[in-house]
Amino acid sequence: MWNPDETEENRGIVTDANRRVRIARTPEDRARHQAFRDQFQDEPSLSELLESGEITQEAYELAQRCYLERVPAAKFEDEAFRRLISALKSERERLGISLTEIARSTGIQLAALSGLESGQNGNPTVSTLSRYASALGKKITWGFENGSPPNLRESGQPGSS
């Protein structure tokens, strides 16, 4: 059982009734951690730093470029696929179900679900999508429709000669 009075000197690691591991901290540790959180809570944005004159326009543009190059664009290339993921996320939110609850009920890792919803996992398995939909009380139906045929002669694909 979790005991908030347990100090780090007395083993410090405890498990509460829900089997969550907690580290019991001394009052000094808690104060130090809170001071650290308080220090960085109201960090100014790049725009605020530029407006205040704390950074130059050149530094601002460099930081923006570095940030944009580091953040990958959404990997979903197919609009229908994007709509499917968006529909799953919207239904989850409409039902008031957290990603953590979906992870528990499906056995899919929370990070994988988050990546799926944010567009960072553009190639999930059929099983992943089906389990996610099932956790929402839905099922995925598959189909296809006419689209623009690829120009194989220009693409260099086998059979294009």
List keywords for this structure.
mainly alpha, 8 helices, single chain, 2 strands, flat, two-stranded antiparallel sheet, 434 Repressor (Amino-terminal Domain), 161 residues, 4% strand
Question: What does this 3D model show about the protein?
Answer:
This protein has 161 residues and is mainly alpha-helical. Among the domains are: 8-41, no CATH class; 79-135, Orthogonal Bundle (434 Repressor (Amino-terminal Domain)), CATH 1.10.260.40. It is built from eight helices and two strands, in the order ββαααααααα. The chain has a two-stranded antiparallel sheet with strand order 1-2. β1 and β2 form a beta hairpin. The radius of gyration is 24 Å and the shape is flat. The model is unreliable at 5-11 (pLDDT under 50).
Total beta strand runs: 2
**Arithmetic mean pLDDT:** 75
Known CATH architecture of the domain at 79-135: Orthogonal Bundle
Q: What is the SS-derived class?
A: mainly alpha
Q: Please indicate the percent range of residues in DSSP E strands (runs of 2 or more).
A: under 5%
Short description:
This protein is mainly alpha-helical and 161 residues long.
Topology summary:
Blueprint lengths: L12 E3 L5 E3 L3 H15 L4 H7 L4 H14 L8 H17 L3 H8 L3 H9 L7 H10 L16 H4 L6
